[in-house]
Amino acid sequence: MRSPFVRVITGCAVGLALVAGACSKEEPPPAKSAVVANPVDPATAGSITGVVKLDGKAPAAQSIAMDSDSYCEKQPKNSTESVVVGSDSALQNVFVYVKDGLGDRAFPVPATAVVLDQKGCRYAPHVLGIQVGQTLEILSSDDTLHNVHAMPQQNREFNMAHQLAGIKHTHVFSTKEVMIPFKCDVHKWMNAFVGVLDHPFYAVTTGTGRFELKGLPPGTYTVEAWHEKLGTQTQKVTIGDKQTSDISFTFKS
Question: Strands, E, within the chain: which ranges?
Answer without folding.
Answer: 46-55, 95-100, 114-118, 123-124, 127-131, 135-139, 146-150, 158-162, 168-172, 177-183, 191-197, 202-204, 210-216, 219-227, 231-239, 244-252
